[in-house]
Amino acid sequence: MKRIIIMMLVVISAASQVVVPSIAQTGSAAGQAIPAKRSISGTVQYADTREPIADVHVFVSTRNGYVSAETDILGRYRLEGIAPGKYLVYAYAKEGYPLGSERVTLSSDRDLTSVDFIIQRFGSIAGIVLDENGEPLSGMAVYLIASRYMYGALRHLLAGMAITDPEGKYIITYVHPGQNYYLLTERQLETHLSVSTEPSDPRLRKRIPSPTYYGDSPSIEGALPVTVNGSDQREGLNFRVPRTPSYCVHGVLGVKGAPGVVHFEIMDLQVPFNLPGAYGIGLPPANGITGPDGRIRVCDLHPGEYKLTAMQEPHDSKSDPAFLGSREFSISDNDVNDVSLLAQPRFSLSGEVVWDNPSPKESFGPQKFIELELRPLTWFGNLWEAEMPRLGAKSSVPGAFSFEDILADDYAVLVQSLPPGVYIKDITFAGASVLNGTLHLGSVSGATRLQVTVADDCGLLAVRVLDNDGNPAPGSYVTVVPANSLPPALLAASMISAPTDDKGRFTSGCVAPGKYNVIATTAPTEPTPEGLGKILKARSSSNEIELGAHAISQIDSRLMNY
What we know:
Layout: E1 38-46, E2 57-62, E3 65-70, E4 76-82, E5 85-92, E6 98-106, E7 117-119, E8 123-131, E9 140-150, E10 153-163, E11 169-175, E12 182-187, E13 208-209, E14 212-213, E15 233-234, E16 239-241, E17 243-244, E18 247-255, E19 258-259, E20 263-268, E21 286-289, E22 295-301, E23 304-311, E24 323-331, E25 336-345, E26 347-355, E27 369-376, H1 381-387, E28 392-396, E29 399-406, E30 410-417, E31 423-429, E32 432-433, E33 439-440, E34 450-455, E35 460-466, E36 477-482, H2 488-494, E37 496-499, E38 505-507, E39 514-521, H3 529-538, E40 543-547, E41 552-558
Parallel strand pairs: 1-7, 8-15, 8-16, 18-25, 26-34, 35-41
Antiparallel strand pairs: 1-4, 2-3, 2-5, 5-6, 8-11, 9-10, 9-12, 12-14, 13-17, 18-19, 18-22, 20-21, 20-23, 23-24, 24-25, 26-29, 27-28, 27-30, 30-33, 31-32, 31-34, 35-38, 36-37, 36-39, 39-40
């Protein structure tokens, strides 16, 4: 059975953006007294009955490693010996699936209590995987896929999985009710020999199962969505899987400008994988180690899109890779030959923060700095955690910053902290905007700089949500979206969704001037195709306002049921 890597991941919702603690937020500076360590405690319960849940794994990640505990029969946990700072507390089921996370700030003068997790009951999905002749397929992976807009694109993320038994049966547990999912079945990923001994003629190789989505579709575009209600078990979600020829990829990998021994990974881009800051579980890609000549010949690959990554094997388990490189390749109806890839050395990425206008006329408060983070888009949990200290930077406004000793790969640029009264106008690299997009490193000159443009001509939105009787609606949600037409990914990135207070009021932070639709709902708007579809449908009957620079727009918004 394949090894499953449980990643430190977070459910990101538009209603509550979770920020992974940066190195600047934890620990103490050199030369300062080490503050007294404190504890975090609470309970884990079911939402409907408040029944305690035992054997839940609760943990935080600190500079010195993980601090973890299991809940007892009363659902209680206690994490001890934690330095003051900002943390994410994670709760995972004993089977390894994420239940939730809570963002906390631990002070030096008291312990944190009542950090509780209220968990909805989950449903499950079951079925059988058969081949084209109706025979059961054993050892097939069945992936539960959730689609979410993240980092400027629609991304298909792994939310659960199962392996078929000798009768081809599978069951996926911990399925969130009320959400649309897709199911994909594929052969399990394996560790590859660097040079396969498969025959050179594809016609002489054994045919392999073709990746198949529920609905017997070869692609997610033709797949049937799946939803469970409450704690129900949906059965009969069966697959009929055709077989396809097996192909190989040939190439030479290396480091320091020459072929050599490197660790390599081949990721099937159709298989969902998880990003740092996403939710779910992570799977290791097929991988191996080249010989001294750097040659690879990897077989048993079906037609599709792949990503090949090469990294210098660390000298010991505590060392990080010094070189990394990646490239994509496609397989259609034949082997792929002459793929070359040289892992690139670490480098430094410098940048600057500049004002959109010459300078602000008024002070914007005591915080005059910005915190940035590079979020890798293709790594797995262990490498991301090891690289975190290098992926944060801090700059004055205006000012300069630098990410030191980073790996050349694809990243999202995130802003984790801003001075009040300031918003991000744009982030550019090599003449192109990477705000809500992908920063491609490794293919441009090392002299290219990252530029972050900030502006202070923003306004505030003050919204009061009313129910059908005209009374304040505490516990409701406000969603704010630009009134102009945008592609779905950019609309999701621009969307604000947040809860009201106990008086049914919501006040935004610094919002760029422009026209917006304000929509009040009973539940948060998730950055999913279904969530955006509901918002777009509700737009025509929602409030539209024009927010001016340095203005405060106040508005009453009626609850909408859609």
